[in-house]
Design a protein that fits this description.
The complex is a heterodimer of chains A (about 325) and B (about 550). Chain A has about 325 residues and is mostly helical. Chain A has a domain at about 95-285: MetI-like fold (Orthogonal Bundle). Chain A contains 15 helices and two strands. Chain A is globular and about 85 Å long. With about 550 residues, chain B is α/β, with parallel strands linked by helices. Chain B is built from 23 helices and 21 strands. In chain B, the strands form four sheets. In chain B, strands 7-8-9-3-10-11 form a six-stranded mixed β-sheet, with helices on both faces. The radius of gyration of chain B is 26 Å and the shape is globular. Classes of the chains: A mainly alpha (about 325), B alpha/beta (about 550). The interface between A and B is large, with 33 and 43 residues. Chain A: Keywords: Cell membrane, Membrane, Transmembrane, Transmembrane helix, Transport. Chain A: It is found in: Cell membrane. Chain A: This is ABC transporter permease. Chain A: Belongs to the binding-protein-dependent transport system permease family.
Chain lengths: ~325, ~550
């Protein structure tokens, strides 16, 4: 196990180095931030002063090394636009996205998996057919459209839920969260629902397919032959046997929701990371883009590692091999 | 003795897309208290479906028909609601399945699986459950049960897993245990032990048992009375001595005749079915056959095979610094030495894990040995060698897995010869047909797909595919192990005839000593990767020299009549 973790961590370092080069050069190609930052009628002297201040007069490799150097000390630079440290900027926005993504993925699993197990357990019942048809709808209808429909219906037509914003927040460990207040929950409900529909459908179909397969195995027949109640069989045998693909998708979805919830965040005017990155791309705010993309890489590396460790926890056969 | 189970006119039908399948069609029998009742038949005879009907665990499209009656200790169980049936399962009727690798849930600890089975029928505290789990494992002779209950199934051997399954079945001291091929997937020595123990347990606990099997020998060993099933009906029933001693029905007689152990070695076996057997080998094929010659055609010198788990660079680094555990290598073959003469059939026997399949694959060039040399016809075998691709061919155990389901029979057989230039696209049809005819397979069916054929036919196709490469040596890895006796007899007959006409050189890998005795000239016995004995067939079977060989021969179940 130790050598496994060690191996994965060293792979992660390589991934991060490659990512930093890609991100840095990629962002460099997008455009020159000087054009956006400085008003066109500034004098040449001011122009050069600003360029030198941001270190943009240095050759690319030097800029990269400086960037890596300050990154390693935890300094992500200052945002050109907001004129504040990027680390601070991101940590301001992170909690909003974090609670949105985590609640959405949890909701998707808690609803999707049981529905899927049911649909796989009784594939021919009417309810199962409705579940399976609904799940196809769930991941084929585009997110932005569902978002707009939700706003139309609940905010405009019935006026029961707010159309956007985070609402009232309460702080936990000094960080503001919406899920701690009733008003916050009202604001969370629609974006969470919007974000989780696709994931829910996917979890549901995965669980259904897994359950159908597992139900025909000898292990389940043997459990039934011992007179074990169906409910126990589903809860103890089936759930554990189908969990590996579910955990994989859970991890991937959590990562991608944290990083790319921007459609939903834009529609519901949610002050999270998705909006921040879109804004910074528009204004060529290089430090924010770079720091954000690096954070996403770290996030995926960490999630994948935890998923691998979860495999070992779920399936004892992998523990021996993973040594 | 009083009767415990009385089955009358049991009919179980399955509704499928192609109409109603009458899997069990009006059978009646009874099982007495404390008796072991054998239910024998080939695959598709309905013997397993009978077992599942009794315990009420049919697939969704199967149904016990009205008018059927199953009485357990006088109580009718046909038509009971699901809840009632569940209460009977495990407590009054229990079941053990064929494949112990599949019946236990791989991701749950043994103690948890036993706990669920206990709590299915009664309330028990965690301590109570542990105590009873230990007791249950001890009853089926598992050593150190206190330690073993906290392990997972993959840490157990096949025989031990089957013991655990039996322990679970016996937890509530049921009145009836249905055992569906419980020893088929096990090695002979393990099988012999389990047979003995099951007999003792049945006597000790006073339970009755239905022993479902295709293997006449094991059934005759363990049961008092047996019934022979064929196509959903019981054709004959009575005591073991009556049914197997003086069979009244031609089908029973046919089954007995198909057993290689009852025929003289090398002779064609009587085939129990009417399906055409006996190859139509064409004269021109026979003419091209090589002449038998003395001396070593295949030579295996001091071959060693060590499988090491790939550790990679980082793994090696961590091992060096003592962070990771050292990887354990598996020494599958140790210093193997053997020769096969041209035209000879060499049997390679051993239990699972003995290294016999690994050695077969090394001879084929699928694996490169860690040390040692293999030569076929004077040429060295190397991994992935193209020319040798035609020189050595392999026939595998499972004809369902060894044919590509998406390619027609013609395509599967033609692929190899086309790739190696043994035929041209234009002549491929005629070329393939010749070899299909050689294995008595109707060439008119060559454009169909594998799933349209039975196991026996598929194995013929696999043989034709190997022959079409015109190999110098064919390695057969358990080619008849997954086939019914009557089909097995046909395939053995085919191999015997092909061997005579084409003068084939065969390496025949098998765990079934009676088949080896019937087919082979010489036998090599492997144990834990080493060759322990090598002798002519007659010599080996009459006067085995090594204790391991003796044990193997003793463990083979024999017809008890």
């Amino acid at each position: 196990m130790t050598s496994f973790v060690f191996k994965r961590l060293s792979q992660a370092v390589i991934v991060l180095i490659v990512m930093s080069i890609l991100v840095f050069t990629g962002v460099y190609v997008i455009g020159n931030p000087v054009d956006v930052l400085i008003s066109p009628d500034a004098t040449q002297a001011i122009r050069e002063q600003v360029i030198a201040e941001y270190g943009l007069d240095q050759p690319l490799w030097k800029q990269y090394l400086d960037f890596v150097g300050s990154m390693s000390t935890g300094d992500f630079g200052r945002s050109f636009v907001f004129n504040m440290p990027v680390g601070e900027l991101i940590s301001q926005r992170l909690p909003a996205t974090l609670e949105l993504a985590v609640i959405a993925v949890l909701l998707a699993s808690l609803i999707g998996v049981p529905l899927g197990i049911y649909a796989g357990y009784r594939p021919n019942s009417l309810a199962s057919r409705i579940i399976m048809a609904g799940s196809i709808l769930g991941f084929s209808v585009p997110t932005f459209w569902i978002g707009l429909m939700l706003i139309m219906l609940f905010a405009v037509q019935f006026g029961v839920l707010p159309a956007g914003g985070r609402g009232q927040t309460a702080s936990l460990f000094g960080i503001p969260f919406s899920f701690l207040t009733l008003d916050g929950w009202k604001h969370l409900l629609l974006p969470v629902l919007n974000l989780s529909l696709f994931k829910m459908s996917m979890m549901c179909r995965l669980a259904a397919a897994g359950t159908r397969e597992v139900m025909t195995t000898d292990a389940i027949k043997f459990a039934r032959a011992a007179g074990i109640p169906e409910r126990t069989i589903l809860r103890k045998h089936v759930l554990k046997l189908i969990s590996i693909p579910l955990v994989t998708v859970f991890g991937l979805e959590l990562g991608s929701t944290l990083a790319f919830a921007l459609v939903t965040e834009t529609i519901f005017n949610w002050p999270g990371l998705g909006k921040l990155i879109i804004d910074s791309i528009a204004s060529l705010d290089r430090p924010v883009m770079v720091a954000y993309l690096m954070m996403v890489s770290v996030l995926f590396v960490v999630i994948n590692l935890s998923v691998d460790l979860a495999y070992a926890a779920l399936d004892p056969r992998l523990r021996l091999k993973g040594r | 003795m009083t009767e415990l189970l009385k089955v009358e006119n049991l009919r179980t039908y399955f509704e499928t897309e192609r109409g109603t399948v009458k899997s069990v069609d009006g059978i009646s029998f009874e099982v007495r208290k404390g008796e072991i009742f054998g239910l024998v038949g080939e695959s598709g005879s309905g013997k397993s479906i009978t077992g599942f009907s009794l315990i009420g665990l049919l697939d969704a499209n199967g149904k016990v028909q009205p008018g059927s009656s199953i009485k357990l200790a006088g109580r009718e169980i046909v038509g009971l609601p699901d809840q009632e049936l569940r209460r009977i399962r495990g407590r009054e009727i229990a079941m053990v399945f064929q494949d112990p690798m599949m019946t236990l849930n791989p991701v749950l600890k043994i103690v948890d699986q036993i706990a669920m089975a206990i709590r299915a029928h009664e309330k028990a505290s965690d301590q109570e459950v542990r105590r009873r789990a230990v007791e249950a494992l001890a009853r089926v002779r598992i050593v150190e049960p206190e330690k073993k209950i906290d392990q997972y199934p993959h840490q157990f051997s096949g025989g031990m897993r089957q013991r655990v399954a039996i322990a679970i079945a016996l937890l509530h001291k049921p009145k009836l245990v249905i055992a569906d091929e419980p020893t088929t997937a096990l090695d002979v020595s393990v099988q012999a032990d389990i047979l003995k123990e099951m007999k003792a347990l049945v006597a000790e606990l006073g339970v009755s048992m239905i022993w479902i099997s295709h293997d006449l020998a094991t059934v005759s060993q363990i049961s008092q009375r047996i019934a022979v099933m064929r196509r959903g009906e019981i054709v004959e029933t009575g005591t073991v001595a009556e049914v197997l001693g003086q069979p009244q029905h031609p089908y029973t007689q046919g089954l007995l005749d198909a057993l290689p152990s009852r025929a003289r070695p090398g002779e064609l076996l009587a085939s129990a079915t009417t399906e055409s057997s006996g190859p139509i080998v064409l004269d021109d094929l026979a003419k091209t056959a090589p002449k038998a010659a003395d001396g070593a055609f295949v030579q295996v010198d001091d071959v060693d095979m060590v499988f090491e788990r790939a550790v990679g660079r980082v793994g090696r680094f961590t091992q060096k610094f003592g962070i990771g555990q050292p990887s354990h290598a598996v020494h599958a073959v140790k210093g193997a030495k053997l020769t096969i003469a041209q035209g000879e059939v060499l049997g390679l026997v051993g239990e699972s894990g003995s290294g016999k399949s690994t050695l077969g694959r090394i001879i084929c060039g699928i694996y490169t040995p860690t040390a040692g040399n293999v030569t076929v016809g004077g040429r060295k075998v190397r991994e992935g060698q193209r020319k040798l691709g035609t020189g050595v061919q392999m026939i595998f155990q499972d004809p369902y897995a060894s044919l590509d389901p998406r390619r027609t029979i013609f395509q599967s057989v033609a692929d190899g010869p086309l790739a190696h230039g043994l035929t041209t696209r234009r002549d491929a049809r005629a070329y393939v047909n010749r070899w299909l005819k050689a294995v008595a397979f109707d060439p008119a069916l060559a454009d169909r797909y594998p799933h349209q054929f039975s196991g026996g036919q598929r194995q013929r196709i696999a043989i034709a595919r190997a022959l079409a490469m015109q190999p110098e040596l064919i390695v057969c890895d358990e080619p008849v192990a997954s086939l019914d006796v009557s089909i097995q007899a046909q395939v053995i007959n085919l191999l015997i005839e092909l061997r005579r006409t084409l003068n084939l050189t065969l390496l025949f890998i098998s765990h079934d000593l009676s088949v080896v005795r019937h087919l082979c000239d010489r036998v090599v016995v492997m144990h834990h990767g080493k060759i322990v004995e090598e002798a002519n067939v007659a010599q080996l079977f009459e006067a085995p020299q090594q204790p391991y060989t003796k044990m193997l021969l003793d463990a083979v179940p024999k017809l008890a009549v």
